[in-house]
Amino acid sequence: MPGDAFAHWLVSYPVAHLNPFQHLLYTAAETCGFRVLPALRLDGLEHVGWARRMVLHLHWLGALLRGCQSAAEAMEAVHEIDQRLAGWRKRGYRIVWTVHNILPHNHQHAAAEIALRKVVARRSHLIHVMSENTGDAVAGHYRLPDDKVFHVPHPSYQGWYPALIGKTAARGELGLGAGDFVFLFFGSIQPYKGLLELVEAYDALRRKRPGARLRLIIAGTPTDAAYCEAVSSKIGGRPDVVFLPRKVDEARVQELFSASDVVVAPYRATLNSGVALLAATFRRMVVAPRQGAMAETFRQDDALLYDADSGEGLVDAMERALAHRVQENVLDALLSRHAPFAVSTAFFAALRGRLDLAEH
Question: What H or E segment, with its residue span, contains residue 10?
Fold first, then answer.
């Protein structure tokens, strides 16, 4: 809406430079009457005169405590954030929080992280959840007031990544054969992702199916050097495992997914999963624990989900994947539910419908 002095402004914080999620969620912003301003810092918002026209959209809250050196410093930061949120509310700003995870995966100050989420839940006007069971999932740590919560699912990645390379060409680039069955792990390499367990399950499956031509790709950015080294040692330079512990260029994402038969996400704990929607975008199914958004996303075909508490659950699900064939209409329906423009439109409709924003 160029030139419209009365457009609504959405200030998004923090900015995820390596994750296209925010771009996808905001796809319909201008169509819905919003202009998005990515914010690297929150300083100075108190001087902006956009009462009832500005939405402060908070994402990954761990950024607010990053750099705190002690538990006391982290709790003091929570107090300061509480005061700032209260001040912004008094100025007429609307506050929305998207719950991405229960707690940050690598948090250092658990008590402060929990306290921060209690503060943000109390100060927010609306709370966006992407999985319908989010309230139950976080209840052991903090409460989400029912009257503030609205559900809009995680968008898929349709239209974001190139999808031009076919399976044969992709496998040729990676040194994989046409008759191989290829499992793909894609994402950051860190302990909660369960990579050591994945390699063990993969080895167990090779023992169960000695005649199968199984291959495993592990690709993603290491965020824990010691853990990455442990994974590398467990793999041991084997030719049947392609290990790419580095940032994957966007142009190469299609190569990895096109080369694969199925994606594996053996996370120890997860609330939402972008990789599930990324896999679906490339029309691949996912082997994963039956929990959180995984169960919701694949509710029409959950054959490759497993009980995380079952000792053989992962290897059994990987074995099922060898013969499983998903119905194309299941993937069509999944991608329709998670189409970025439709998801974005629903998100902004909730904001316009429930935030009492000024229209003039």
Answer: strand 8-13
Across residues 67-78, what is the average pLDDT?
Answer: 97
The letter for the amino acid at 231 is V
Please report the sign of the dihedral spanned by the C-alpha atoms of residue 130, residue 134, residue 138, residue 143: positive
Strands ordered across the beta sheet of 54-58 = 34-38, 8-13, 54-58, 94-99, 126-129, 149-151
CA–centroid distance for 23 within its chain? 13
Check: CB of residue 64 under 8 Å from CB of residue 116.
Answer: yes
Q: Where are the beta strands (DSSP E) in 174-294?
A: 181-186, 214-219, 241-244, 262-264, 286-289
pLDDT in tens, 224-264: 999 999 999 999 989 999 999 999 999 899 999 999 999 99
Q: What is the CATH number of domain 167-337?
A: 3.40.50.2000
For 10-41, b where at least 16 C-beta lie within 10 A, e where not — what string?
Answer: bbbbbeeeeebbbebbbbbbeebbbebeeeee
Question: Which tokens hold the place of 279?
Answer: 């896999």
> CB count, 10 Å around CB of 4?
10
Query: One-letter amino acid identity for 206?
Result: R
Question: Could you give the residue range(s) of every CATH 3.40.50.2000 domain in the chain?
Answer: 8-155+339-354, 167-337
CA-closest candidate to residue 269, choices 287, 285, 289: 289
Q: Residues of 262-274 as b/e, b for ≥16 C-beta within 10 angstroms?
A: bbbbbbeebbbbb
User: What are the structure tokens assigned to 325, written together?
Assistant: 């064939």
Query: How many helices and strands, by DSSP H and E, does the chain display?
Result: 13, 12
Residue 130 pLDDT level (bands cut at 50, 70, 90):
very high
At the fourth CATH level, which superfamily is domain 8-155+339-354?
A: Glycogen Phosphorylase B; (3.40.50.2000)
Which strand (E) or helix (H) includes residue 292? helix 292-297
User: Is the distance from CB of 259 to CB of 176 less than 8 angstroms?
Assistant: yes
Residues 85 and 75: their CA atoms lie apart, in Å, by 15
- Comparing CA positions, the residue from 305, 295, 252 lying closest to residue 272 is 295
- The residue among 4, 75, 76, 63 whose CA lies nearest residue 35 is 4
Q: Global pTM?
A: 0.93
